Amino acid sequence: MPSMHDRIREDLLLHERSLWTALTSADPGPAVEKLCNEDANLLFPSLPILHLESEPSIKEAMAPPFHRFDSFSLGEVRTIVIDLMAGVVTYTIHATRGRKEYNALGSTTWSQGSDGEWRICVHQETMM
Q: 64: domain range?
């Protein structure tokens, strides 16, 4: 049977992949917003810090074609358990859209709410 920390790492990695599936979808705003806790901050290259009450809003800033990629892959993934209800996933991201490439470093801090669901506290991407 996997240890508690191993199960948390697996959960966090699944959620991170769900985040990237949402980020690369046709309309990521609503799905990403559902993954965020009420105080989440999202830091993307060339955008202001986004949060649930920011101007522009998450939905506005992530309107199509935001992060619209044909494919993405995460590399050098590290999942760090902070405690039983918090963790961080760090990685490199390589994505493509046609012939254009996107290479960045990514980090997402997750916390588990009282409902047992993992939610984003902070997500950051840094161009390489």
A: 4-127
Each residue's pLDDT tens digit, 72-85: 999 999 999 999 99
CATH, residue 122: 3.10.450.50
Instruction: Give the sign of the dihedral formed by CA 24, CA 77, CA 122, CA 117.
Output: positive
Question: Strand, helix or coil at 33?
Answer: helix
**Number of structural domains the chain divides into:** 1
58-106 tens-digit pLDDT: 888 888 878 778 899 999 999 999 999 999 999 999 999 889 999 999 9
CA dihedral angle for residue 96, residue 100, residue 105, residue 106, rounded to 10 degrees: -50
